[in-house]
Amino acid sequence: MVRRTKEEAEATRLQLLDAAERCFREKGVAGTTLDDIAKSAGHTRGAVYWHFENKADIFEAVCERVTTPMQAMLGDLAADPGTDPLGFLRNDAIRVLRMLTDCERVQAVFEIKFCKLDGGPDFDRLRSRELETHSRCLDMLEVVFGAAVRIGQLPTHLPPRETAEAMHAFIGGLMRSWIERRDFDLQKSAPWLVDTFLVGLRNAPMPDPAG
Fold first, then answer.
1. Which string of DSSP letters, residue by residue, matches 11-69?
2. What digits encode the pLDDT tens for the residues 79-106?
3. What pLDDT digit, counting tens, does each position of 92-143 carry?
4. Within 13 A of 161's CA, how many CA atoms are on the CB side?
5. Residue 154: CA atoms inside 13 Å, Cβ hemisphere, count?
6. Which residues of 68-81 are buried (b: 16+ CB within 10 A; e: fewer)?
7. DSSP code for 123
C-alpha cells in the first residue's frame, strides 16, 4: 500500500511537470499561474503545493529533467583531450549542437529559458546555477584551448580565456538562434559551422595591445 502511494505521488509529480512545461511554452513563465498548471494536469492546486514550493521550484524541476547541451559539454570536457585537443573539442561541439535538435524535451526547456522566462527574484537560485555552469564551462574550455596552443594546433598569441569565451558564445548563440527561428538545419550544418569557427581561430590576428 505504501509503495502504491509513493508510485501515485510520483506519477502526480510527473503529470504536474509535464503540464508546467506545456503552460510555460504557451503562456510564458510569468503568464502561467499555479492554477493553470493544476488544471492542465487534471489535479488541484493543493497537489501542486504538496510537491513544489512555488513556480520557480516547478521550473527548476522541469529543467532538471533534462541534461542540457552545456551540462553535457561540461561532462565531456572533464575527460582527458589526449593528443588532439582541438579535434576533441570539435567533436564535442558538434555533439552538443546535435543534442539540441535530437531531443524534444531539451528543446522545450531551451525555448522556455530563451523565449519565455521572465520571472522575478524567486528565480535567483536558478540564475546562480546557470552562472556557475557558465563559469565551470569556461574554465574547462580554457584548459583545452591552452593545450591546443602548447602543441601548435593554434597560434601561440591566442589567449585561451578569451578564446573560451568566444567558443561558449558561439555555441550558445547558435542554439538560441535555432530555438528562436528554426530556419536552418542545425543537425546537418553543425560540422561546417564548428569547422568554420575553428579555422577562424587558426587564422586569428595578433591581439591589439591598444585594445
1. HHHHHHHHHHHHHHHHH-STT--HHHHHHHHT--HHHHHHH-SSHHHHHHHHHHTS--H
2. 777 889 999 999 999 998 999 999 888 8
3. 999 989 999 998 888 998 888 888 777 666 677 777 878 888 898 899 899 9
4. 1
5. 27
6. bbbebbbebbeeeb
7. G
Domains of the chain in sequence order: 1-52 (1.10.10.60), 55-203 (1.10.357.10)
* Cα-based distances in Å from 13 to 30, 37, 42, 80, 184: 21, 11, 12, 39, 36
Q: Are 46 and 69 in contact (CB under 8 A)?
A: no
**70, 22 contact by CB (below 8 A):** no
